[in-house]
Amino acid sequence: MLTPSANVTASPAKSIWRSLSHLQRCRVVAAARKQLADDAEWLAELCESDQRTDPVETVTAEITPLCAALKFIGKNGPSILRSQRFGVRGRPIWLWGVTSEVSRVAWGDVLILAAWNYPLLLPGVQIAQALAAGNHVWFKPAPGCEKIAAVLVSAFLRAGVPQTALSLLPSSPAAAQQRIDDGVDLVVLTGGSTSGRAVMTRCAQTLTPSIMELSGCDAVLIGPGADLDHAAKTIAFGLTFNAGATCIGPRRLVVSPDQLAALVDRLREHLGEAPPQVVHPAARKAVVAAITDAQRRGAVDILGPQQTTDVLGSRGELRPRIYSGVGADWKIADGDLFAPVASLLEAADDEAMVQIVNRCRYRLAASVFGPPLWARSLADRLDVGHVSINDMIFPTADPRIPFGGRGHSGFGVTRGAAGLLAMSQPKVTAIHRGSVFLHLRKRGPSDLAAALKLLRASHGGK
After folding, report:
1. Measured distance CA(184)–CA(294) in Å, rounded
2. Average pLDDT over residues 298-327
3. Model confidence, pTM
């Protein structure tokens, strides 16, 4: 089993790994999927916890999409990272003789700070993309995920990634703080907004850039003509999947008044007998505060009797809850909760639905249920990073697409082509061939007239 190496040193500029071609690195990274597939049973066992009791969830929601992402990098990574040449076609006339090339170069040292709720998929894709781009990766897992992280790192090393290119850090916050202080070139954090602020504050001291994949308070919009049974079944899945600890799980159910009663009936049908879920210790304080505040202000759980004391019980258990009579700005409807809790919000029309989404601090993703044309029209007006139409959560696992949020849900993207590009920087090399250097000519009396004539011929008129 790998042990953390807090004091490992690396020189990315001289690294053999960085000197490899994009094709070579992408092939090595992609080969780690075989290791992960072979270790699937072991990984599922390591991922078992109070929140993750079903090994099928680990295989289908973490290992399989991670392997698909590695395959995508192996097949498409070289072309995504390929240099682009800008020659004669489209070149301004005043750049006579100049050709330019834009290449993708590694940042150098990339620090990846992982979350506890999806300890394989989220850091695994980020590690793979950072490595494929030629970086040295420092990986700090979340507390409690140390063994899983060691197996994940081992899979990349066994696939051929050199140990000088991938270092496993201890899981303590101090390890991340020390690594940032020692110097990195990019920080990628997956976590809550509180962690995001703390990391950004530390990065600001050294002007270190960052990508923040933060949590959400996602809305489910139920439109006219929606299949309410399908919507309720999908909401039930989203609330209980991974014990409700999913950043893009359903937190606000937005529905018109004339559909409210029918939706409530179907939600009770699909969630009324749902077993309690164990809330992760890191999330319990916020969950208790939000529920207590909602109940104090008169909110009612549509799925069962009120429980006003000892909200989580001795084991931190919570049965799924959906509260009605909630204001859009209450803690329970405007916070990043990681538990099987949602709020019912009424919206009289499409504009009201859009405003409920766009005025929320957290705008990671949203789901829209209704006829495709209507749903697509509404989706185009939502200021979020991802919209699923007539589905939720699983469409984001597509290895081809980027993932990122708005507002307090962070900035920058990981995954997909855009995520791979984000792990590198563009570098431009311009070559001037020939003897024509118009900008070096001695200024003459006719130059202004010639310059104006060129300007207007190129850009003036109709």
Report:
1. 42
2. 84
3. 0.93
